[in-house]
Specification:
By secondary structure, this protein is mainly alpha-helical. The protein is built from 15 helices and seven strands. Strand 1 and strand 2 form a beta hairpin.
Amino acid sequence: MFEKIFESDDVKKTLKEISNRLRYQDKDIPISISEEKMDVRYYSLLMFLDSLFKFYIIVGEDSYLPMYLEQIDKLLRKVENHNDIKIGMNKLLITFSKMKLKLSNSTSCENKKILFHHFYESYIVNGYLFHSFPSKFLNEVKTNGLSISNYFYETERLKEIEDIFHKYKEENVFQKELDSSPYLSMTDSPFLGVYYAYYSPQFLNDFTTYFLEDSKNYDTSAFFRKDLASCKNNINTFMDKIHMSKKDKNKVFRFLEEEWNTLEIENKKPVMCLVKRSLLSKNFLPDINELEEELKDNELYLVITKLLDTRMNNFKVEDNILSSALKIVELPSLEELEIIRKKEDNQNNPNPRSEFINQYGNTTIIALLGVLFITLGLTIMTILIGR
């Protein structure tokens, strides 16, 4: 089911439109969602992918897909506020679930209960948790499943970089517990599962966006586009701000380039896997009875929104998961979405602002030659004028 989501021509067309048209990018969204920083340019793309996964989990009728896509596209074009978009999507899921269950309405007490239990059974009891990982590990995961050992990054190297930033009073630049035991991190949100897929590995994404509070000075979508030059430029701008030494800068850049190449970030295709909630004993909600009681005094969409809300964004799993228990989905690549990876000014300058980080002075020689030629020209001009 999930493997075929992106084979539809209608889905492919809508994805390209949403990824590249400005009318989808003018949104009023929070700075962060579940503590993850959002870039408004790709927010609609993530919401659209979230809506697709929820459609297949809750509705699951291919015959309804063209109508659903049309309504989701209209919603993302015309509605600007994040909460209104989320509520609009949930209303659409209710409408198409009503069609699936052949109910005449979604407002009577009986039908509200039927739809409520349909959502609960499909999304929670028989639903999924989501985990994303670098595509470098795709064949390994397909063969051996999710192994905690794959996620045991070289913490000593990360600590070395953290120690450098600590000298300049900057802490936890990877937003990661470096001394904790390795674990698999799961989320109950398709939106965040997709987010982590495009921004994987998370520790590098956090490292290249740690300082983006003052976003006007940075390229906020650099890591999403896998644009190493822009990521380096972001980090260099921040290191200039905290007056980092050239020697320390070079260590930071060497680390980034080595991790980038080791994890094959440039060639990465977003990958997300789905794990049954029941496998991890997360296929129930402790407040389900209270939610059902709310149906008496509230519209159905308000209660459904609470049911679908994110409750576990960083659920830690300390056991390996067999490949037979996984549904692995390869999401559309940046090339398939026709997203331009590199900014034009970076294509001609693959190592932006490198003149500030070369401790051996190679670029300084070029600068001195320029000054020498200017001085020579002024000298000749003076001689000619003197004649």
